[in-house]
């Protein structure tokens, strides 16, 4: 048996964004390290002919950040982004198998954000900000970093690259709106274009609009507003004409489950196609026919087809199924998938299964004996059905308890634990299990996997029923003799960090707590974080809603700080813009330390 080490956790390489060509034969994916020591994350593109010898080969030998592989309509050219010419500035590159050549297709000084090869083999749609002007460069030299709202805000604009001339044209059809996503109709017709009024992560997702764009004439038609946080565009044909779908938050609250919305192009009728499902859509994938939908389904993942009369389940698997890609007909898929004891790898197969693993990116884990992981189902204090995971120390069973128990709350709160291998760089169940701890991974209300109402239940009520959902699970494990009531710990990041901070202000049951990038003051977070309105929906109010006391004060851990008797380790990046640390700044206007942090 090989002992699990820290290098296994942070020194791994993981597959991302598989891209299956329309012919169903060629498959490419990005291989990325889980950590980096410098300023840049060096990734690589790998390619295989599934009908050939099955041998993977690297597309380029450059040291670069390579991402977003996409195939041309004829499956003959692979397009991708790479910063191999100038680190940090991604440009569009293309690779052709006929001559094994990689050619840089753009030299856009602002860099390319996204791209979409079009049905016209000579055109590629690009998303890119405006190139810097002389005034911009002068301000940068003079370190003029004043932020004026509404001025010099970055906007991603739709641009068209003509591969014959290398020229990049910028249509004026969308004015000053920020373009976030493109999808061409499968028959080579117009582009669906999703725009926002701003790139601001708070205001932008609440100001989305859909458009039709004709790449030949350069004209656009406004299809009207869309629900908050719209993304994942997909076309499909119906008996009543073309339909355009997308994922978005279910109105009217910002903290809610996602849904598939269906816009009939002829009638302009719009409807929620997943309103009554006890599952949550996470991806919508276009094919030449009916689109495929990935659904968070409790601890599992369901793959379904969006048919005219509803969602038709095709297959279900335990654990994850992410970044779905299909051939043109939708008869073959590629996705990143993993299992209870298998790390994520690229799998291929028909949508109804079975899927075949075609990569082995972490062979060093083959000899590791992991802790026993099993699903948990139980009922909340008010009778609501809940689930989660229990991970026991390697080689031990429940009858060997009681064990010291660490509860790790997930982030979001619109996230979930699924039945995949729980081995990550952040608080990790298998890492703790290797040290002899039992680990409880609860899915309290507010998360994915159980439909809209389950997800929306925490809006304005964070730390209430979701907290008792977690306590009920801990009490169950104590009663079953699995958890030692005198050796309990709690941890979490982002919203999970909030729950860990909340816990130590409500009870002294825990011997230690870890709060990573956690929310401690909802009013401050709504005022300073990137997603103010979203956070206000969770906390229930803002600091400018009158004199107070405010509803968010009653659910902010800082309000109960005087009660805390538990040792707490607080980890927070000084440059975290999602959940700002709130620490004082130096006179230069920059944080005194520069450790980055991300949270979800």
Spell out the key features of this protein:
600 residues; mainly beta; Rossmann fold; seven-stranded mixed beta sheet; four-stranded antiparallel beta sheet; 8 helices; 35 strands; globular; disordered C terminus
- CATH class division of the domain at 373-571: Alpha Beta
CATH homology superfamily of the domain at 373-571: Alpha/Beta hydrolase fold, catalytic domain
| Count of helical regions | 8
Q: Characterize the overall form.
A: globular
The biggest sheet, with number of strands, parallel, antiparallel or mixed sense and barrel status, is:
7 strands, mixed
Q: What proportion of the residues is helical, as a percent range?
A: 10-25%
Per CATH, the architecture of the domain at 373-571 is: 3-Layer(aba) Sandwich
CATH topology of the domain at 373-571: Rossmann fold
Strand order of the largest sheet: 29-30-32-31-33-34-35
Quaternary organisation? single chain
Total number of beta strands: 35
Structural class comes to mainly beta
Distance between the termini: 35 Å
Proportion of beta-strand residues = 35-45%
Give the C-alpha Rg: 25 Å
Low-confidence stretches: 583-600
Region (Disordered): 575-600
GO biological process, one term: proteolysis
Biased composition (Polar residues): 578-600
Domain Peptidase S9 prolyl oligopeptidase catalytic: 429-581
């Amino acid at each position: 048996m090989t002992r699990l080490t820290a290098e296994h956790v942070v020194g791994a390489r993981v597959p991302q964004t598989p891209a299956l060509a329309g012919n169903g034969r060629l498959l490419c994916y990005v291989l990325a390290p889980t950590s980096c020591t410098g300023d840049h994350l060096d990734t690589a593109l790998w390619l295989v002919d599934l009908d050939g010898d099955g041998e993977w080969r690297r597309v380029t030998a450059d040291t670069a950040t390579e991402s977003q592989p996409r195939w041309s309509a004829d499956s003959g050219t692979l397009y991708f982004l790479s910063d191999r010419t100038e680190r940090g500035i991604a440009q569009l590159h293309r690779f052709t198998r006929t001559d094994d050549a990689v050619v840089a297709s753009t030299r856009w000084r602002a860099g390319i954000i996204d791209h979409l090869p079009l049905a016209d083999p000579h055109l590629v749609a690009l998303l890119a900000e405006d190139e810097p002007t002389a005034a911009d460069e002068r301000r940068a030299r003079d370190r003029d970093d004043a932020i004026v709202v509404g001025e010099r805000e970055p906007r991603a604009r739709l641009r068209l690259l003509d591969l014959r001339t290398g020229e990049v044209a910028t249509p004026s059809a969308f004015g000053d709106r920020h373009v976030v996503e493109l999808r061409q109709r499968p028959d080579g017709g117009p582009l669906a274009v999703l725009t926002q009024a701003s790139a601001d992560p708070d205001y932008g997702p609440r100001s989305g609009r859909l458009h039709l764009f004709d790449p030949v004439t350069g004209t656009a038609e406004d299809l009207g507003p869309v629900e908050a946080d719209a993304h994942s565009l997909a076309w499909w044909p119906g008996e009543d004409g073309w339909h355009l779908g997308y994922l978005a938050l279910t109105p009217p609250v910002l903290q809610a489950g996602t849904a598939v919305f269906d816009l009939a192009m002829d009638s302009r009728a719009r409807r929620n196609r997943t309103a009554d499902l006890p599952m949550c859509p996470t991806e919508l994938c276009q094919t030449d026919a009916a689109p495929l939908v990935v659904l968070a389904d409790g601890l599992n993942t369901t793959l379904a087809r969006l048919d005219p009369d509803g969602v038709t389940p095709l297959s279900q698997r335990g654990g994850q199924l992410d970044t779905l890609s299909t051939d043109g007909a939708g008869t073959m898929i590629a996705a990143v998938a993993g299992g209870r004891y298998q790390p994520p790898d690229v799998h291929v197969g028909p949508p109804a299964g079975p899927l075949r693993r075609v990569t082995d990116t972490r062979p060093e884990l083959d000899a590791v004996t992991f802790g026993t992981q099993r699903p948990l189902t139980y009922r909340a204090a008010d009778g609501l059905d809940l689930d989660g995971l229990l991970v026991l120390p390697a080689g031990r069973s429940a009858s060997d308890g009681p064990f010291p128990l660490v509860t790790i709350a997930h982030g979001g709160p619109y996230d979930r634990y699924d039945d995949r291998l729980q081995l990550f760089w952040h608080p990790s169940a298998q890492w703790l299990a290797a040290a002899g701890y039992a680990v409880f991974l609860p899915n309290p209300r507010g998360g994915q996997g159980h439909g809209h109402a389950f997800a929306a239940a925490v809006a304005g009520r964070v730390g209430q029923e979701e907290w008792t959902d977690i306590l009920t699970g801990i009490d169950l494990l104590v009663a079953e003799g699995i958890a030692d009531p005198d050796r309990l710990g709690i941890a979490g990041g982002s919203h999970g960090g909030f729950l860990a901070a909340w816990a130590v202000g409500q009870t002294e049951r825990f011997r230690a707590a870890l709060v990573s990038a956690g929310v401690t003051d909802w009013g401050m977070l709504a005022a300073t974080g990137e997603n103010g309105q979203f956070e206000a929906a969770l906390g229930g109010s803002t600091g400018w809603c009158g004199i107070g006391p405010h509803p968010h004060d009653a659910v902010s851990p800082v309000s109960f700080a005087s009660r805390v008797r538990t040792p707490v380790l607080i980890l927070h990046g000084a440059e975290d813009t999602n959940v700002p640390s709130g620490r004082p700044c130096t006179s230069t206007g920059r944080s005194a330390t520069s450790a980055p942090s991300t949270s979800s």
